[in-house]
Amino acid sequence: MITSSAALSVLAGYGLSRSDCLDIAAYLAGAEYNYALLHAGKLAVNEEELLRISERVLKKEPTAYITGRKEFYGLEFDLCSGVFIPRPESELLTELAIKENPRRVLDLCTGTGAILISILSELKDARGAGADISLKAIETAERNARKLGVSDRTEFFQADLLASSLPYGDFDLITMNPPYLSEREYAECPPSIFYEPKNALAAESEGYHFYNIILNELKKFNNMLLLFEIGAAQGETVVRLAENCGFEVSLFNDLAERNRVIRAHKR
Hints:
Layout lengths: L1 E2 H9 L5 H12 L3 H6 L5 E2 L1 H12 L4 H5 L1 E4 L2 E4 L12 H10 L3 E5 L5 H9 L4 E6 L2 H13 L6 E5 L14 E4 L6 H5 L21 H10 L5 E6 L5 H10 L3 E6 L5 E8 L1
Parallel strand pairs: 5-6, 5-8, 6-7, 8-9
Antiparallel strand pairs: 1-2, 3-4, 9-11, 10-11
Helix pairs in contact: 1-2, 6-7
């Protein structure tokens, strides 16, 4: 056995961020992340297990798949290989959704359920549903809803958004973080990205395929409110697509001043 401080030194040597090093060290020690942050020198880590994990780190496997967990909007979500890893960038969409104070939320491309579950965790009177093409994602989202105490206010279902007719009119807010990378952008991603499902990251039509489909579907409804995450260079194009479908549109930037969220409202 070695201390988690020693494990942190080993992991840091592989080029991981400090937060990833702490996450893995806490996982190996069977401790909460925040506890490991404050008491790194007091925790014991199995050296053989550290070496086994190190092999996965060297192969650029994402830390979230190694630990089976990812923090998002102050909550810890379970996940497994084959399910899209929630990103901090999506917290802006979540924050904006909470400010809208919706009663019924539909989250498309829900993945782990992170966006929907985070919204419902803040809005105690709200209910919601999440859709994803991946059965593994749906099972993961259901598990997270139970873990985080919102399963009585959520439902998740498997659906191909490009081929299914969903009950959009039953909801007063629709959120979506769709695949939006172009093939070129996807090919230029760091190696860790290729562990994640490609169909959760890249889309046809230079990354705009889902926006085209969903906006054209939702323009049939009145009083429809949408919040979509977009790529950093997609703001102008998605704004134009939404306006062409009759929506009033606002564009929000993240803390790095990059295009990040589209708010589209059709009265």
